[in-house]
Amino acid sequence: MRTSMLRSMEAVLRRGEISFSSSSSSSHLLRRSYASESTPERKVAVLGAAGGIGQPLSLLMKLNPLVSNLALYDIAGTPGVAADVSHVNTRSEVAGYMGDEQLEQALTGSDVVIIPAGVPRKPGMTRDDLFNINAGIVKGLCTAIAKYCPNALVNMISNPVNSTVPIAAEVFKKAGTYDETKLFGVTMLDVVRAKTFYAGKANVNVADVNVPVVGGHAGITILPLFSQATPKANNLSDEHIVALTKRTQDGGTEVVEAKAGKGSATLSMAYAGALFADACLKGLNGVPDVVECAFVQSSITELPFFASKVKLGKNGVEKVFDLGPLSDYEKQGLEKLLPELKSSIEKGIKFANAN
Ligand SMILES: NC(=O)c1ccc[n+]([C@@H]2O[C@H](COP(=O)([O-])OP(=O)(O)OC[C@H]3O[C@@H](n4cnc5c(N)ncnc54)[C@H](O)[C@@H]3O)[C@@H](O)[C@H]2O)c1
Ligand SMILES: O=C(O)C[C@H](O)C(=O)O
Protein backbone atom coordinates (compact mmCIF):
# COMPACT_ATOMS: atom_id res chain seq x y z
CA MET A 1 0.00 0.00 0.00
CA ARG A 2 2.91 2.27 0.88
CA THR A 3 4.47 1.58 -2.51
CA SER A 4 1.30 2.46 -4.38
CA MET A 5 0.94 5.67 -2.36
CA LEU A 6 4.52 6.64 -3.20
CA ARG A 7 3.92 5.80 -6.86
CA SER A 8 0.84 7.99 -7.09
CA MET A 9 2.65 10.81 -5.23
CA GLU A 10 5.49 10.57 -7.72
CA ALA A 11 3.04 10.65 -10.64
CA VAL A 12 1.37 13.77 -9.26
CA LEU A 13 4.74 15.46 -8.77
CA ARG A 14 5.75 14.57 -12.32
CA ARG A 15 2.58 16.13 -13.65
CA GLY A 16 3.34 19.26 -11.62
CA GLU A 17 0.10 19.16 -9.71
CA ILE A 18 1.53 19.67 -6.25
CA SER A 19 1.75 23.09 -4.76
CA PHE A 20 2.08 24.87 -1.45
CA SER A 21 -0.58 26.71 0.43
CA SER A 22 -0.99 28.45 3.75
CA SER A 23 -4.32 29.89 2.78
CA SER A 24 -7.17 30.05 5.22
CA SER A 25 -8.76 27.04 3.57
CA SER A 26 -5.74 24.82 4.17
CA SER A 27 -2.38 25.10 5.84
CA HIS A 28 -1.20 21.80 4.38
CA LEU A 29 2.17 22.18 2.76
CA LEU A 30 1.45 19.99 -0.20
CA ARG A 31 -1.76 20.46 -2.05
CA ARG A 32 -3.08 19.99 -5.56
CA SER A 33 -3.19 23.21 -7.49
CA TYR A 34 -3.48 24.94 -10.80
CA ALA A 35 0.11 24.24 -11.92
CA SER A 36 0.03 23.01 -15.50
CA GLU A 37 1.92 22.93 -18.77
CA SER A 38 1.42 26.71 -19.03
CA THR A 39 3.12 27.46 -15.70
CA PRO A 40 5.67 30.20 -16.51
CA GLU A 41 9.41 29.84 -16.05
CA ARG A 42 10.45 31.25 -12.67
CA LYS A 43 13.95 31.45 -11.26
CA VAL A 44 14.35 31.45 -7.48
CA ALA A 45 17.71 32.16 -5.80
CA VAL A 46 18.42 31.16 -2.20
CA LEU A 47 21.30 33.14 -0.64
CA GLY A 48 22.70 31.26 2.37
CA ALA A 49 21.56 27.97 0.85
CA ALA A 50 24.03 25.77 2.72
CA GLY A 51 22.88 26.92 6.16
CA GLY A 52 20.47 25.55 8.72
CA ILE A 53 17.49 27.23 7.04
CA GLY A 54 18.99 27.29 3.55
CA GLN A 55 19.22 23.52 3.12
CA PRO A 56 15.65 22.50 4.00
CA LEU A 57 14.35 25.65 2.27
CA SER A 58 16.22 24.67 -0.90
CA LEU A 59 14.61 21.23 -0.73
CA LEU A 60 11.14 22.71 -0.26
CA MET A 61 11.67 25.10 -3.18
CA LYS A 62 12.79 22.11 -5.27
CA LEU A 63 9.40 20.52 -4.48
CA ASN A 64 7.56 23.59 -5.72
CA PRO A 65 6.33 23.13 -9.31
CA LEU A 66 6.14 26.89 -9.84
CA VAL A 67 9.96 27.00 -9.83
CA SER A 68 11.79 26.24 -13.07
CA ASN A 69 15.33 27.26 -12.00
CA LEU A 70 16.71 27.06 -8.50
CA ALA A 71 19.99 28.86 -7.82
CA LEU A 72 21.64 27.89 -4.53
CA TYR A 73 24.26 30.39 -3.36
CA ASP A 74 26.45 30.46 -0.26
CA ILE A 75 30.00 31.40 0.65
CA ALA A 76 30.74 27.68 1.19
CA GLY A 77 29.17 24.25 0.81
CA THR A 78 26.77 24.86 -2.08
CA PRO A 79 28.19 22.32 -4.55
CA GLY A 80 27.21 19.51 -2.18
CA VAL A 81 23.79 20.91 -1.34
CA ALA A 82 23.02 21.57 -5.01
CA ALA A 83 24.16 18.09 -6.12
CA ASP A 84 22.02 16.52 -3.39
CA VAL A 85 18.87 18.56 -4.03
CA SER A 86 19.24 18.28 -7.82
CA HIS A 87 18.57 14.53 -7.68
CA VAL A 88 14.99 15.11 -6.53
CA ASN A 89 12.82 14.35 -9.57
CA THR A 90 10.78 17.53 -9.80
CA ARG A 91 10.51 20.29 -12.41
CA SER A 92 13.30 22.71 -11.55
CA GLU A 93 16.90 22.73 -12.73
CA VAL A 94 19.23 23.23 -9.76
CA ALA A 95 22.59 24.99 -9.84
CA GLY A 96 25.00 25.66 -6.98
CA TYR A 97 27.08 28.84 -6.76
CA MET A 98 29.83 29.56 -4.25
CA GLY A 99 31.70 32.74 -3.37
CA ASP A 100 31.54 36.35 -4.54
CA GLU A 101 32.68 35.62 -8.05
CA GLN A 102 29.63 33.38 -8.68
CA LEU A 103 27.03 35.68 -7.13
CA GLU A 104 26.28 37.42 -10.43
CA GLN A 105 25.44 34.12 -12.13
CA ALA A 106 23.34 33.01 -9.16
CA LEU A 107 21.26 36.18 -9.23
CA THR A 108 20.92 37.00 -12.91
CA GLY A 109 17.37 36.36 -14.13
CA SER A 110 15.94 35.71 -10.66
CA ASP A 111 12.25 36.41 -10.09
CA VAL A 112 12.44 35.79 -6.34
CA VAL A 113 15.51 36.01 -4.10
CA ILE A 114 15.24 34.46 -0.64
CA ILE A 115 17.87 35.55 1.90
CA PRO A 116 18.53 33.32 4.92
CA ALA A 117 22.25 34.29 5.02
CA GLY A 118 23.80 35.32 8.30
CA VAL A 119 24.42 34.20 11.84
CA PRO A 120 21.66 32.86 14.12
CA ARG A 121 21.10 33.56 17.83
CA LYS A 122 22.50 31.64 20.78
CA PRO A 123 20.73 31.52 24.19
CA GLY A 124 20.80 34.90 25.93
CA MET A 125 21.05 36.91 22.70
CA THR A 126 18.43 39.19 21.18
CA ARG A 127 17.95 39.37 17.43
CA ASP A 128 19.48 42.84 17.57
CA ASP A 129 22.72 41.25 18.86
CA LEU A 130 23.07 39.80 15.34
CA PHE A 131 23.05 43.26 13.77
CA ASN A 132 26.81 43.82 13.67
CA ILE A 133 27.47 40.74 11.55
CA ASN A 134 24.26 40.37 9.56
CA ALA A 135 23.85 44.03 8.57
CA GLY A 136 27.05 43.86 6.53
CA ILE A 137 26.11 40.51 4.95
CA VAL A 138 22.69 41.80 3.92
CA LYS A 139 24.13 45.04 2.61
CA GLY A 140 26.59 43.17 0.41
CA LEU A 141 23.98 40.79 -0.95
CA CYS A 142 21.48 43.59 -1.64
CA THR A 143 24.14 45.59 -3.48
CA ALA A 144 24.53 42.58 -5.79
CA ILE A 145 20.75 42.17 -6.16
CA ALA A 146 20.47 45.83 -7.23
CA LYS A 147 23.10 45.15 -9.88
CA TYR A 148 22.14 41.74 -11.22
CA CYS A 149 18.38 41.25 -10.64
CA PRO A 150 16.89 44.64 -9.67
CA ASN A 151 13.35 43.51 -10.49
CA ALA A 152 13.33 40.43 -8.27
CA LEU A 153 11.06 40.11 -5.26
CA VAL A 154 13.32 39.99 -2.21
CA ASN A 155 12.26 37.79 0.73
CA MET A 156 14.43 38.85 3.69
CA ILE A 157 14.79 36.20 6.39
CA SER A 158 18.13 37.32 7.93
CA ASN A 159 17.78 38.86 11.38
CA PRO A 160 17.17 41.37 12.78
CA VAL A 161 14.42 41.63 10.12
CA ASN A 162 13.23 44.91 11.69
CA SER A 163 16.58 46.42 10.62
CA THR A 164 17.69 44.28 7.65
CA VAL A 165 14.65 45.26 5.57
CA PRO A 166 15.33 49.02 6.01
CA ILE A 167 19.00 48.33 5.16
CA ALA A 168 17.93 46.60 1.94
CA ALA A 169 15.60 49.51 1.07
CA GLU A 170 18.42 52.05 1.55
CA VAL A 171 20.85 50.00 -0.54
CA PHE A 172 18.28 49.78 -3.35
CA LYS A 173 17.50 53.52 -3.07
CA LYS A 174 21.17 54.38 -3.40
CA ALA A 175 21.43 52.13 -6.45
CA GLY A 176 18.30 53.75 -7.92
CA THR A 177 16.45 50.43 -8.07
CA TYR A 178 14.20 50.64 -5.01
CA ASP A 179 10.65 49.49 -5.59
CA GLU A 180 8.71 49.22 -2.34
CA THR A 181 6.39 46.62 -3.85
CA LYS A 182 9.26 44.14 -4.17
CA LEU A 183 10.82 44.07 -0.71
CA PHE A 184 9.48 41.82 2.04
CA GLY A 185 10.61 40.97 5.54
CA VAL A 186 9.51 37.38 6.07
CA THR A 187 7.34 37.25 9.20
CA MET A 188 5.52 34.11 8.12
CA LEU A 189 7.01 32.05 10.96
CA ASP A 190 5.16 34.25 13.43
CA VAL A 191 1.92 33.47 11.59
CA VAL A 192 2.75 29.75 11.47
CA ARG A 193 3.39 29.77 15.23
CA ALA A 194 0.28 31.81 16.05
CA LYS A 195 -1.85 29.37 14.03
CA THR A 196 -0.32 26.32 15.73
CA PHE A 197 -0.58 27.70 19.27
CA TYR A 198 -4.13 29.03 18.74
CA ALA A 199 -5.36 25.74 17.28
CA GLY A 200 -3.95 23.87 20.28
CA LYS A 201 -5.68 26.09 22.84
CA ALA A 202 -8.90 26.68 20.93
CA ASN A 203 -9.17 23.00 20.11
CA VAL A 204 -9.88 23.61 16.44
CA ASN A 205 -8.42 22.03 13.32
CA VAL A 206 -5.10 23.79 12.69
CA ALA A 207 -5.63 23.53 8.93
CA ASP A 208 -8.65 25.82 9.21
CA VAL A 209 -6.97 28.48 11.37
CA ASN A 210 -6.03 31.98 10.25
CA VAL A 211 -4.38 34.56 12.52
CA PRO A 212 -2.91 37.84 11.26
CA VAL A 213 0.37 38.82 12.93
CA VAL A 214 1.40 42.46 12.58
CA GLY A 215 4.19 44.84 13.67
CA GLY A 216 7.71 43.48 13.28
CA HIS A 217 9.75 40.37 13.94
CA ALA A 218 11.32 40.59 17.41
CA GLY A 219 9.84 40.16 20.89
CA ILE A 220 7.05 42.63 21.65
CA THR A 221 7.13 43.99 18.09
CA ILE A 222 5.45 40.70 17.07
CA LEU A 223 1.74 41.36 17.58
CA PRO A 224 -0.62 38.47 16.85
CA LEU A 225 -4.22 39.63 16.41
CA PHE A 226 -6.09 36.80 18.07
CA SER A 227 -9.25 38.94 18.17
CA GLN A 228 -9.33 38.45 14.36
CA ALA A 229 -8.46 34.73 14.49
CA THR A 230 -10.74 32.32 12.66
CA PRO A 231 -12.47 30.06 13.38
CA LYS A 232 -13.73 31.97 16.42
CA ALA A 233 -13.10 30.25 19.74
CA ASN A 234 -15.51 30.70 22.65
CA ASN A 235 -13.36 28.86 25.16
CA LEU A 236 -10.49 31.38 25.34
CA SER A 237 -10.28 33.75 28.31
CA ASP A 238 -8.30 37.00 28.42
CA GLU A 239 -5.57 35.06 30.28
CA HIS A 240 -5.43 32.53 27.44
CA ILE A 241 -5.01 35.35 24.90
CA VAL A 242 -2.21 36.95 26.95
CA ALA A 243 -0.43 33.57 27.18
CA LEU A 244 -0.89 32.86 23.45
CA THR A 245 0.43 36.32 22.58
CA LYS A 246 3.49 35.88 24.78
CA ARG A 247 4.20 32.39 23.41
CA THR A 248 4.02 33.71 19.83
CA GLN A 249 6.32 36.63 20.70
CA ASP A 250 8.78 34.28 22.42
CA GLY A 251 8.51 31.46 19.86
CA GLY A 252 11.98 32.12 18.46
CA THR A 253 13.53 32.20 21.93
CA GLU A 254 11.73 28.95 22.83
CA VAL A 255 13.57 27.23 19.93
CA VAL A 256 16.91 28.98 20.61
CA GLU A 257 16.83 27.76 24.23
CA ALA A 258 15.77 24.23 23.27
CA LYS A 259 18.63 24.06 20.74
CA ALA A 260 20.97 25.15 23.57
CA GLY A 261 23.65 26.90 21.51
CA LYS A 262 23.11 25.03 18.22
CA GLY A 263 21.25 27.89 16.54
CA SER A 264 17.65 28.99 16.09
CA ALA A 265 14.59 27.81 14.19
CA THR A 266 15.59 26.23 10.89
CA LEU A 267 12.99 23.60 9.93
CA SER A 268 9.88 25.60 10.83
CA MET A 269 11.52 28.65 9.23
CA ALA A 270 12.25 26.72 6.05
CA TYR A 271 8.57 25.71 5.98
CA ALA A 272 7.43 29.30 6.58
CA GLY A 273 9.92 30.68 4.03
CA ALA A 274 8.77 28.18 1.43
CA LEU A 275 5.12 29.13 2.03
CA PHE A 276 5.89 32.82 1.65
CA ALA A 277 7.99 32.35 -1.49
CA ASP A 278 5.19 30.23 -2.95
CA ALA A 279 2.74 33.06 -2.25
CA CYS A 280 5.07 35.49 -4.05
CA LEU A 281 5.31 33.14 -7.05
CA LYS A 282 1.55 32.72 -7.18
CA GLY A 283 1.15 36.49 -7.11
CA LEU A 284 3.68 36.91 -9.92
CA ASN A 285 1.81 34.29 -11.93
CA GLY A 286 -1.44 36.22 -11.59
CA VAL A 287 -3.24 33.99 -9.11
CA PRO A 288 -5.93 36.21 -7.58
CA ASP A 289 -6.42 37.01 -3.90
CA VAL A 290 -3.06 35.89 -2.55
CA VAL A 291 -2.89 37.51 0.88
CA GLU A 292 -0.19 36.90 3.51
CA CYS A 293 1.38 38.89 6.34
CA ALA A 294 4.80 40.47 5.67
CA PHE A 295 6.99 43.34 6.89
CA VAL A 296 6.83 45.89 4.08
CA GLN A 297 6.99 49.62 3.40
CA SER A 298 3.77 50.85 4.85
CA SER A 299 1.71 53.88 5.72
CA ILE A 300 -0.80 52.17 7.98
CA THR A 301 1.04 53.43 11.09
CA GLU A 302 3.47 56.32 11.63
CA LEU A 303 6.40 53.95 10.89
CA PRO A 304 7.84 53.56 7.38
CA PHE A 305 7.87 49.73 7.62
CA PHE A 306 5.30 47.56 9.30
CA ALA A 307 4.06 43.97 9.04
CA SER A 308 0.43 43.46 8.14
CA LYS A 309 -1.63 41.54 5.63
CA VAL A 310 -0.54 42.29 2.07
CA LYS A 311 -2.04 41.28 -1.24
CA LEU A 312 0.53 39.81 -3.62
CA GLY A 313 0.22 40.38 -7.34
CA LYS A 314 2.09 40.40 -10.64
CA ASN A 315 4.51 43.10 -9.43
CA GLY A 316 4.77 42.13 -5.77
CA VAL A 317 2.77 44.07 -3.16
CA GLU A 318 -0.57 45.08 -4.67
CA LYS A 319 -2.20 46.30 -1.50
CA VAL A 320 -1.19 46.79 2.13
CA PHE A 321 -4.20 46.14 4.35
CA ASP A 322 -4.73 48.20 7.46
CA LEU A 323 -4.96 46.61 10.87
CA GLY A 324 -8.72 46.23 11.14
CA PRO A 325 -10.50 46.36 14.49
CA LEU A 326 -8.22 45.70 17.47
CA SER A 327 -9.10 44.59 21.00
CA ASP A 328 -8.03 46.89 23.85
CA TYR A 329 -5.22 44.46 24.66
CA GLU A 330 -3.99 44.60 21.05
CA LYS A 331 -4.25 48.42 21.02
CA GLN A 332 -1.96 48.49 24.08
CA GLY A 333 0.42 46.03 22.38
CA LEU A 334 0.53 48.28 19.32
CA GLU A 335 1.37 51.37 21.41
CA LYS A 336 4.12 49.45 23.22
CA LEU A 337 5.79 48.10 20.11
CA LEU A 338 6.05 51.33 18.12
CA PRO A 339 9.11 52.87 19.90
CA GLU A 340 11.18 49.65 19.69
CA LEU A 341 10.28 49.03 16.06
CA LYS A 342 10.99 52.68 15.21
CA SER A 343 14.47 52.50 16.70
CA SER A 344 15.30 49.20 14.92
CA ILE A 345 14.19 50.70 11.60
CA GLU A 346 16.25 53.83 12.21
CA LYS A 347 19.29 51.75 13.18
CA GLY A 348 19.11 49.95 9.81
CA ILE A 349 18.70 53.18 7.84
CA LYS A 350 21.61 54.81 9.68
CA PHE A 351 23.88 51.80 9.09
CA ALA A 352 23.12 51.68 5.38
CA ASN A 353 23.86 55.36 4.93
CA ALA A 354 26.98 55.47 7.11
CA ASN A 355 28.79 52.54 5.57
N1 LIG B 1 12.78 35.77 9.75
C1 LIG B 1 12.66 34.76 10.55
O1 LIG B 1 11.55 34.43 11.00
C2 LIG B 1 13.85 33.93 10.91
C3 LIG B 1 13.67 32.65 11.48
C4 LIG B 1 14.79 31.90 11.78
C5 LIG B 1 16.08 32.40 11.55
N2 LIG B 1 16.22 33.62 10.99
C6 LIG B 1 17.53 34.18 10.70
O2 LIG B 1 18.05 33.57 9.52
C7 LIG B 1 19.47 33.67 9.51
C8 LIG B 1 20.10 32.33 9.14
O3 LIG B 1 19.84 31.37 10.12
P1 LIG B 1 20.43 29.87 9.99
O4 LIG B 1 19.95 29.12 11.19
O5 LIG B 1 20.17 29.31 8.64
O6 LIG B 1 22.00 30.17 10.14
P2 LIG B 1 23.23 29.26 9.64
O7 LIG B 1 24.44 29.79 10.28
O8 LIG B 1 22.90 27.82 9.83
O9 LIG B 1 23.27 29.53 8.07
C9 LIG B 1 23.58 30.77 7.55
C10 LIG B 1 24.25 30.56 6.23
O10 LIG B 1 24.54 31.86 5.68
C11 LIG B 1 25.75 31.73 5.01
N3 LIG B 1 26.35 33.03 4.76
C12 LIG B 1 27.06 33.84 5.58
N4 LIG B 1 27.46 34.94 4.93
C13 LIG B 1 26.99 34.84 3.67
C14 LIG B 1 27.06 35.67 2.52
N5 LIG B 1 27.71 36.83 2.54
N6 LIG B 1 26.46 35.24 1.41
C15 LIG B 1 25.79 34.07 1.38
N7 LIG B 1 25.68 33.25 2.42
C16 LIG B 1 26.27 33.63 3.55
C17 LIG B 1 26.61 30.82 5.89
O11 LIG B 1 27.71 30.28 5.16
C18 LIG B 1 25.58 29.79 6.30
O12 LIG B 1 25.55 28.70 5.41
C19 LIG B 1 19.84 34.17 10.90
O13 LIG B 1 20.10 35.55 10.83
C20 LIG B 1 18.60 33.92 11.72
O14 LIG B 1 18.49 34.76 12.83
C21 LIG B 1 15.13 34.39 10.68
O1 LIG C 1 14.50 33.67 17.15
C1 LIG C 1 15.40 33.77 16.31
O2 LIG C 1 16.50 34.26 16.57
C2 LIG C 1 15.17 33.24 14.94
C3 LIG C 1 13.88 33.68 14.34
O3 LIG C 1 13.76 35.07 14.28
C4 LIG C 1 12.68 33.04 14.96
O4 LIG C 1 11.69 33.74 15.20
O5 LIG C 1 12.71 31.83 15.19
UniProtKB/TrEMBL annotation:
Subcellular localization: Mitochondrion matrix
Record domain Lactate/malate dehydrogenase N-terminal: where: 43-185
Active-site residues, as the UniProt record annotates them: H217 (proton acceptor)
EC number: 1.1.1.37
Residues where NAD(+) binds: G48, A49, A50, G51, G52, I53, G54, D74, N134, I157, S158, N159, M269
SUPFAM superfamilies: LDH C-terminal domain-like, NAD(P)-binding Rossmann-fold domains
Domain Lactate/malate dehydrogenase C-terminal as annotated: residue spans: 187-351
Catalytic reaction(s) noted: (S)-malate + NAD(+) = oxaloacetate + NADH + H(+)
GO cellular component term of the entry, any: mitochondrial matrix
One GO term of the biological process aspect: malate metabolic process
Keyword tags: Mitochondrion, NAD, Oxidoreductase, Transit peptide, Tricarboxylic acid cycle
Main localization category: mitochondrion
Annotated TM spans: none
Coiled coil: none
Binding site for substrate: R121, R127, N159, R193
Pfam families: Ldh_1_C, Ldh_1_N
Record-level Gene Ontology MF annotations: L-malate dehydrogenase (NAD+) activity
Alphabetical list of InterPro entries matching this protein: L-lactate/malate_DH, Lactate/malate_DH_C, Lactate/malate_DH_N, Lactate_DH/Glyco_Ohase_4_C, Malate_DH_AS, Malate_DH_type1, NAD(P)-bd_dom_sf
Assembly notes: Homodimer.
Family, similarity comment: Belongs to the LDH/MDH superfamily. MDH type 1 family.
Protein name stated in the entry: Malate dehydrogenase
Organism annotation: Protea cynaroides
Lineage: Eukaryota, Viridiplantae, Streptophyta, Embryophyta, Tracheophyta
